[in-house]
Design goal:
This protein folds into two domains: 158 residues; 88 residues, no CATH class. It contains six helices and two strands, in the order αααααββα. Helix 2 packs across helix 4. The two termini are 27 Å apart.
């Protein structure tokens, strides 16, 4: 494969990273919008509670003023208090002033409640549409990631289908893999890969050209790498591919498979193979 095609494969693989970055950034932006909406609704709710308390306060003042006014009116009628009529007039003016204040508070409360109801209805519709968008984003991003893996494979096939088998040099295709040849000290700790994994992976790569299920472009790459083994001392993975476990944790070449590297990274650490 030419250096130009290798560069292009890396560019195609980078598209997968760009898709993941786009998805993550979009979800974060939506979360910021949700937070802002929640703050707005919380502020409106506080306004409603504030004007409700103000209205209740004004109503208590009105009740007290009316009680006092009835007492003054009774004394004025009985003429037991010479200043009762003057006090009745003053109390009436105070009561009318508090009633005007209550009407202002009630109007503000009405507007706040109406605003809250409208916001909540709009928020419900927004949440529905946001969920539809998120589902579309996640589903289509996942599908795009999968299609990208196929696209990379098809692109690699363009450069591999003309390759013909070469001599294996110092390597043998049917190299034996002996699990018993490694003692426990060479094994990795839990969650890591040790010498057993590396040897099993090398054996799997050597068997690939004889695997009828392996794609031709991967076979061509491995044959080409085997010719250069003496120079580098190891076999590189085909661009965009990794050796992964069919069954996680079992380091045996018979249990390995070629996987799209970008898709494997996309699984996340918990499910990566």
């Amino acid at each position: 494969m030419s250096s130009v095609s290798l560069k292009t494969v890396r560019s195609l693989v980078n598209i997968g990273s760009a898709l993941r970055t786009f998805k993550k950034s979009t979800i974060e932006e939506l979360a910021a919008v949700d937070h802002h909406l929640a703050e707005t609704l919380n502020w409106v709710d506080q306004r409603v509670r504030h004007w409700q308390k103000e209205e209740q306060l004004k109503q208590r003042q009105i009740d007290n003023l009316r009680t006092e006014l009835r007492g003054l009116q009774a004394r004025a009628t009985a003429r037991t208090d010479r200043l009762a009529r003057t006090k009745v007039a003053e109390q009436t003016r105070v009561l009318e002033d508090v009633l005007r204040q209550q009407r202002v508070v009630s109007e503000k409360l009405r507007k706040a409640v109406l605003w809250k109801e409208r916001l909540m209805r709009a928020k419900v519709e927004f949440d529905k549409e946001e969920n539809r968008f998120k589902n579309t984003l996640l589903n289509h991003t996942h599908k795009a990631q999968s299609r990208l893996g196929i696209l990379i494979s098809k692109y690699q096939a363009i450069y591999h289908y003309r390759l013909s088998p070469h001599s294996t040099g110092s390597l043998e295709t049917g190299a034996e893999f002996d699990r018993q040849a490694l003692n426990p000290s060479t094994l990795a700790s839990e969650g890591q890969h040790g010498a057993l994994f590396q040897r099993a992976k090398q054996a799997f790569k050597l068997r690939t050209p004889d695997d009828s299920n392996a794609p031709s472009y991967i076979k061509g790459w491995i044959l080409q790498e085997k010719n250069s083994f003496a120079k580098r001392g190891y076999i590189r993975n085909p661009p965009g591919f990794q050796v992964g476990h069919r069954v996680k944790g079992i380091d045996d070449p018979a249990r390995f498979a070629w996987e799209n590297a970008d898709m494997n990274e996309y699984r996340g650490g918990k499910f990566r193979r």
